[in-house]
From TrEMBL, chain A:
Organism taxonomic ancestry: Eukaryota, Metazoa, Chordata, Craniata, Vertebrata
Subunit structure, as described in the record: Component of the proteasome complex.
Secretion signal, residue range per the UniProt entry: none
Task performed by this protein: Component of the proteasome, a multicatalytic proteinase complex which is characterized by its ability to cleave peptides with Arg, Phe, Tyr, Leu, and Glu adjacent to the leaving group at neutral or slightly basic pH. The proteasome has an ATP-dependent proteolytic activity.
Keywords: Cytoplasm, Nucleus, Proteasome
Protein name: Proteasome subunit beta
Pfam families associated with the record: Proteasome
Originating species: Oncorhynchus tshawytscha (Chinook salmon)
Transmembrane segments: none
GO CC annotation: cytoplasm; nucleus; proteasome core complex
Domain of life, source organism: Eukaryota
Biological processes annotated in GO: proteolysis involved in protein catabolic process
Entries under CDD domains matching the protein: proteasome_beta_type_1
UniProtKB/TrEMBL annotation, chain B:
Domain of life: Eukaryota
Keywords (A to Z) from UniProt: Cytoplasm, Hydrolase, Nucleus, Protease, Proteasome, Threonine protease
Quaternary structure and interacting proteins, as annotated: Component of the proteasome complex.
Keyword match Magnesium: no
GO cellular component, one term: cytoplasm
PANTHER family to which the protein is assigned, alphabetical: METALLOPROTEASE TLDD, PROTEASOME SUBUNIT BETA
Domain Proteasome beta subunit C-terminal residues, every copy: 240-271
Gene that produces this protein: LOC112264788
MF annotations from Gene Ontology: threonine-type endopeptidase activity
Function: The proteasome is a multicatalytic proteinase complex which is characterized by its ability to cleave peptides with Arg, Phe, Tyr, Leu, and Glu adjacent to the leaving group at neutral or slightly basic pH. The proteasome has an ATP-dependent proteolytic activity. This subunit is involved in antigen processing to generate class I binding peptides. Component of the proteasome, a multicatalytic proteinase complex which is characterized by its ability to cleave peptides with Arg, Phe, Tyr, Leu, and Glu adjacent to the leaving group at neutral or slightly basic pH. The proteasome has an ATP-dependent proteolytic activity.
Transmembrane segment boundaries: none
Catalytic activity from the UniProt record: Cleavage of peptide bonds with very broad specificity
This protein's name: Proteasome subunit beta
GO annotation terms (biological process): proteolysis involved in protein catabolic process
Length: 238, 277
C-alpha cells in the first residue's frame, strides 16, 4: 500500500508531500492548537466562554481543556492559539497579580490587568506570544467590561468580542444580535444575563457545526458582583 | 466498421497541457491580488471489508475546505456500475469526476459486451489514468464489488498504486478506523456483524479525526444486489439551539427602489381552481 508522507505545514495543518526536489525542513517554534473564546459585557455582568477542545493538525489532544482562566474575583481571561504560550502567559499574569497585591495592598482592576497585559505582550514584540486574548470582568463601577487583544498587545475595550479559530463566524452574528447592526426597525433592548447566556450557547453550537477546531464542550464563566459562576454545556464531539 | 472504442487510447507520455496555463494564471492572479481558489478536500474516513456474502463499504459525510466544514451531508460512496461502488477520499472534485468518468466508460463497455464489468477492469482503468497524471489528481479510492469471480476490495492511491485486501481504510481518519478493523476483522464474517464493524470503524474515524464527521453512509454489495443505506446512522449531535433567529419583513433597509414594469401581452389565459377548502 502506498502511504503519502505527510508533513506539518507551519500552521499545524497537514500537507501532501510530493517529491519535487530537495526540501529544506524548518523547525517552527509555534503550533496552532485551535479553540474559540468569546466575551460579552452586560450592565452588571460579564460572560467569558470558550470551547474545551485542544487539537493539533487533524488530531485531538484533549476534549477537556478549557481556555478561560480565573485571574481575580472580578476578572476572567480567555486565551486561544498556541497552548504552550497560553500556559506561560497565564502563569506570568498570575505572578504579576500577586506582586501587585503585595506591593499595593489591593487587587488589580480589570482595566489595570488589561493595560499590564498589553505591555507584557509588547515586551515580546519580536518573538510574540501566539495567543489571542480576551479579558472579561467588572470595572471599578461594577459595569461589565471586555478587553480584546492581538498577539502583540494592541487592545481596546469592547462590549462583545470573539477570538480564536471560529472568531470570523461568531463575530458577525454577535454584531447582529447584540449590536443590532444591519437591522432596521428593531428595538434596541439592553442585554440581560439570561439572554446573553442563551445567545452564547447558541452561537457556539453553530460554530461547532462548521469549524473543525471548535467542539466537545463549552465552558461559560459568568462574572457578577457575587463572584464567578461556571457552567459547562456539551457540544459536538465529531 | 470499426468497433467503437471503450476508452480513447491515451497519447503517449504525460499530459501536462494545463500546467503552463496554471502558472500563467497564478502570475496574473497574484498581480491582481487575488488568491487561486483552494480545492475542497474531503478530509475523510472511508472503510471497506469483504464478508461472506459480499462487500461492505462505509464513509462519513463531512467535506472540509481548510478548517471550515463545507458540506455536512456529502455523498462519498459513488456508483460505478450495478455491481461496483467506490468510496473516494482526497480532493472532492477529483474523486467525483474520476469516478464519473470510470462509470461512464464501464457503462459503454457493458452495453458493448452485454456483461457487468469486473472489478479488476475498473481497477485497471483507474490505475492507468491516475498514474498518467503523476499524482496531480488527488484521489484515494476504495473500490468494492461483486462479480463472477467473487467479492473484491481494492484500493487505488493518487499516484496509481493498487492493493487487493480483505479490509481497508483511507482518508485522514484512516488510522483510527484501521485500529478498529485490525482488532475485530475475521475472514468470512456474517453480514450484520460486518455492517456493525464498518460502522464502528467509521465512527472511530469521526470521533478521533477533525476532518471527518456528521453521518455514516453504508453500502452493501452482494450477488443479489446493492443496498445503499444513506444515512446508516445519523449524527447524534443535531443542533439544538434554544432560540429561533428569525427576521421580520422590513429588517433589511431599503436604500433605493427602482420599479421596471414588464410589457406583457396576454396570449392565452387558463383558469385552474385551487381547492382551498
Amino acid at each position: 500500500t502506498m502511504f503519502a508522507t505527510q508533513v506539518y505545514g507551519d500552521n499545524g495543518k497537514m500537507k501532501e508531500y510530493h517529491y519535487t526536489g530537495p526540501v529544506e525542513h524548518r523547525f517552527s517554534p509555534y503550533s496552532f492548537n485551535g479553540g474559540t473564546v468569546l466575551a460579552v459585557a452586560g450592565e452588571d455582568f460579564a460572560i467569558v466562554a470558550s470551547d474545551t477542545r485542544l487539537s493539533e493538525g487533524y488530531s485531538i489532544h484533549s476534549r477537556d481543556s478549557p481556555k478561560c482562566y480565573k485571574l481575580t474575583d472580578t476578572t476572567v481571561i480567555g486565551c486561544s492559539g498556541f497552548h504552550g504560550d497560553c500556559l506561560t502567559l497565564t502563569k506570568i499574569i498570575d505572578a504579576r497579580l500577586k506582586m501587585y497585591k503585595h506591593s499595593n495592598n489591593k487587587c488589580m482592576t480589570s482595566g489595570a490587568i488589561a493595560a499590564m497585559l498589553s505591555t507584557i505582550l509588547y515586551g515580546r514584540r519580536f518573538f510574540p506570544y501566539y495567543v489571542y486574548n480576551i479579558i472579561g470582568g467588572l470595572d471599578e463601577e461594577g459595569k461589565g467590561a471586555v478587553y480584546s487583544f492581538d498577539p502583540v498587545g494592541s487592545y481596546q475595550r469592547d462590549t462583545y468580542k470573539a477570538g480564536g479559530s471560529a472568531s470570523a463566524m461568531l463575530q458577525p452574528l454577535l454584531d447582529n444580535q447584540i449590536g443590532f447592526k444591519n437591522m432596521e426597525g428593531v428595538q434596541h433592548l439592553p442585554l440581560n444575563q439570561e439572554k446573553a447566556v442563551q445567545l452564547v450557547k447558541d452561537v457556539f453550537i453553530s460554530a461547532a457545526e462548521r469549524d473543525v477546531y471548535t467542539g466537545d464542550a463549552l465552558r461559560i464563566c459568568i462574572v457578577t458582583k457575587d463572584g464567578i459562576k461556571e457552567e459547562t454545556v456539551p457540544l459536538r464531539k465529531d | 466498421m470499426a468497433l467503437s472504442n471503450v476508452l480513447e487510447i491515451p497519447t503517449s507520455g504525460f499530459n501536462f497541457e494545463n500546467v503552463a496555463r496554471n502558472v500563467a494564471l497564478e502570475g496574473l492572479l497574484e498581480g491582481g491580488q487575488t488568491k487561486t481558489p483552494k480545492p475542497m478536500k474531503t478530509g475523510t474516513t472511508i472503510a471497506g471489508l469483504v464478508c461472506k456474502e459480499g462487500v461492505v463499504l462505509g464513509a462519513d459525510t463531512r467535506a472540509t475546505s481548510g478548517e471550515v466544514v463545507a458540506d455536512k451531508m456529502c455523498a462519498k460512496i459513488h456508483y460505478i456500475s450495478p455491481n461496483i461502488y467506490c468510496c473516494g477520499a482526497g480532493t472532492a472534485a477529483d474523486t467525483e469526476k474520476t469516478t464519473d468518468l470510470l462509470s461512464s466508460n464501464l457503462t459503454i463497455f457493458s452495453m458493448n459486451s452485454g456483461r457487468n464489468p469486473r472489478v479488476v477492469m475498473a481497477v485497471n482503468i483507474l490505475q492507468d489514468m491516475l498514474f498518467r497524471y503523476r499524482g496531480q489528481i488527488g484521489a484515494s479510492l476504495i473500490l468494492g464489488g461483486v462479480d463472477c469471480n467473487g467479492n473484491h476490495l481494492y484500493t487505488v492511491g493518487p499516484y496509481g498504486s493498487i492493493d487487493n485486501v480483505p479490509y481497508l481504510a483511507m482518508g485522514s481518519g484512516d488510522l483510527a478506523a484501521l485500529g478498529i478493523l485490525e482488532d475485530r476483522f475475521k475472514p468470512n464474517m456474517e453480514m450484520e456483524e460486518a455492517k456493525e464493524l464498518v460502522r464502528d470503524a467509521i465512527h472511530s474515524g469521526i470521533m478521533s479525526d477533525l476532518g471527518s464527521g456528521n453521518n455514516i453512509d453504508i453500502c452493501v454489495i452482494t450477488k443479489q444486489g446493492v443496498d445503499y443505506i444513506r444515512p446508516y446512522q445519523e449524527s447524534e449531535y443535531k443542533d439544538k439551539r434554544q432560540k429561533r433567529y428569525k427576521y421580520g419583513p422590513g429588517t433589511t433597509s431599503i436604500l433605493t427602489e427602482k420599479i421596471v414594469p414588464l410589457e406583457l401581452e396576454v396570449v392565452q389565459e387558463t383558469v385552474q381552481r385551487m381547492d382551498t377548502a
